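Task 17 of the worksheet. Students: predict the tertiary structure of the chain below and write it out as structure tokens. Keep your answer in the requested format; marks are given for formatting as well as content.
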Amino acid sequence: MSALTNRPSSGAIGGVAGSSTDGSTDNNVLSQYKVLTLTFNQDCTSLAMGTRKTYALFTISQDNKIDEIYDCAYDDVCIIERLFSSSLTALVSNQAPRKLKVCHFKKGTEICSYSFANTILAVKLNRLRLIVCLEESIYIHNMRDMKVLHTIRDVPSNRDGLCALSSNSDNSYLAYPGSSITGEIQVFDTLNLRPGIMISAHESPLAAMAFDMSGTKLATASNKGTVIRVHSAIDGTRLFEFRRGVRRVATIYSLAFSPDAMFLAASSNTETIHIFRLANPKEKAPEEATWMGYFGRKLSDVAHYLPKQTSEVLTQDRSFACVHLQSPGMKTTIAMNVLNKTLKLFVAGYDGVVCVYEVNTIDGGECKQISQYLLFSMSPNSTTQQTMVTTNEGRNSIDGGSTRLYSGNLIPADNASIPLSSTPPPTSPTSGKNLVHQSSNISIDEQNFPRLPSPPQGVYD
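Model answer:
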């Protein structure tokens, strides 16, 4: 592995700058490595990346390493989702935006494909359900045989395909916008196939949402991006409210809970990733002995006598920890996981760079960067490769800070890393290379997904 010494600037598409004097060659290289989609799987043990010419899967190991386990030549993959650490993936290409393919990547076989009337905007998976989101309808498939169980029609215009699916099989809730004008959320029970509660989360339209791992908490942000709220997915009760900013409107890119739902991270188009602590008032550390604690208590006392907007600003909690990015404005997707009994934050940028941070769960503050990975090299003749640098003297550090230790069984240890092949040949979707995550023990496998006939003509076309 070669060292990654400098993170590319936000002006370079795909995280690189061409060095050739031939401008057309540079543009071709940049286009080839432009990242179209980045998604973590349901428990942050895997990362999927789609580019103009290929898509790749990476595993995240307990020692914070990110290793490629699969690479396939496939043009313009704009949606790719992996089911936990199993071999099942769902993908959509911009070249056929109405067609969903479900594949077994270990054996390089296509399990089934479905065509829909309109462009597929999002795909979500859990062990029981596969969700396909179009602009004005949502299809719910049974994961065992891929049959359509239910169709939610007349969905308010959802041009971004915004939706969230709980990864918990007992609370398999789907959330999607209930309005295109306000920040209402419709919760749908995908097990019993019936609507749940409607949550009035924000006054402005929604921009991001995410469930915790239990499926009982739902985090949301509006298109203003100043306030992050957490509601109960069961009864709609507002549980927490956090203020990301006061005057500065931001676009929220991604929300992610920690595995124990004690922390919530939010990334945006600003230079800061905020991490909020979900602690009830009685669980918060006493601050009465400090001047800030006294001042905060007095503000809370008088907030009830002030106008609503002013009182909300005074009573909403601020971030507990944060990360300052080197490339402000770069689109990111984030996830949190407990590795080696320490909470880690993974920040995947659309420049192809993934940064790993250690979250100080006791004192908060600036998070310490512990490693950084480049998901592909920029040699025009090379296939997807990975580069890593470990930052022993990172710019974001908490020297001497204490950190909460987590139980080792909080997250299944399904993250054994696979070393990269030095010269992996390009492959087609039906002949993927046989790089297998050896520790994958999810029961869902190809034998549970027999090759299915194509859906009847006219059903989705």
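Marker's comment: The chain has three helices and 30 strands. The mean pLDDT is 78.
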